[in-house]
Amino acid sequence: MVKAVGFSQFGGPEVLEIVDLPDPHPGPGQVRIAVRAAGVNPSDWKKRKGLMDRELPQTLGYEAAGVVDELGQGVADVAVGDRVFGFCADGAAQAELAVLSFYAPVPPSLGFAEAAALPAAVETAARALDQLGVGSGSTLLVNGASGSVGSAAVQLAAARGARVIGTASPANHEYLRALGAEPVAYGEGLAGRVLALAPDGVDLALDVAGSGVLPELIELAGGPGHVLTIADFGGAQQHGVRFSSGDAGRALYALAEIGELIESGRLSLPVAQTFPLAEVAAAHRVSEDGHLRGKLVLLVG
């Protein structure tokens, strides 16, 4: 049996518990890891509140890093004992053992906590940039650029040769400059501040924050077809903007490609705070508060 995060009723962080589950085993093409760190995402507390899946009981966690301890049939690209990070398709990564369906080697310069912070943010950002068609010479506006997905989007877009303008609170402007973005403050008057940097507007806009600014983004980018949101489903429907979800195909290739960017110093995602697995409720409280620069990670073992 393995210890894992779970809940058997919907509610506040207090419904979370450490439960015993049967040992998982990898299927063809999968690997099992002894988990050292697992990422915490906003979807975790949305699930806990019953805002997403309605089945009970549930486990949590879609991304983890650890040491390979069992190989599924046909796996030849890693060996037992290798450090890997990746996605747990069955949503049970916050546990002592987890099965990864998609994985890549942990970049040599990273520890397990930093590696566990990567998969969801990097895949989401790369998928959004692909769907927008961000490339060399594009000017991209990222709304909500200082969070984990926003930070990844800024750096991946800059690596593609795009000019990036990013919205964040003034306290995060130096951080955005360090990532390669030109910062602007969000809030009233946003469009004017962006136009001061880019008088002809921007080519493309990505909404990571879901803060109700889609009309301004549409105006700045020259139409709803040039805007994509990962955070505002209702606004996307209302304004004719694309909403990015994994249903249209995920950018899993990005896991294998980011190692080079990380090792060359062109991509980093800070870990905001770590918690022992048993203190997952505290992690949820911080996550639900929002306004994080970087990622929350649970440490296991």
Taking Cα atoms only, what radius of gyration do you get, to the nearest Å? 19 Å
| Annotated CATH architecture of the largest domain | Alpha-Beta Complex
Give the overall shape, derived from the CA principal axes.
globular
Q: Runs with pLDDT <50, length 5+? A: none
CATH fold-level name of the largest domain: Quinone Oxidoreductase, Chain A, domain 1
| Total beta strands | 16
For CATH, the homologous superfamily of the largest domain is named as Medium-chain alcohol dehydrogenases, catalytic domain
Which CATH class of the largest domain?
Alpha Beta
Cα distance spanning the termini: 15 Å
Please give the count of helices: 10
Structure, briefly:
The protein has 301 residues and is an alpha/beta fold. The chain is built from ten helices and 16 strands. The strands form three sheets. Strands 3, 5, 6, 7, 8, 15 and 16 form a seven-stranded mixed beta sheet that branches.
Notes on the protein architecture:
Strands 3, 5, 6, 7, 8, 15 and 16 form a seven-stranded mixed sheet that branches. Strands 11-10-9-12-13-14 form a six-stranded parallel sheet, with helices on both faces. Strand 10 (163-168), helix 5 and strand 11 (182-185) form a beta-alpha-beta unit. It is 30% helix and 27% strand. The protein has ten helices and 16 strands. The protein is globular and about 60 Å long. The chain is α/β, with parallel strands linked by helices.
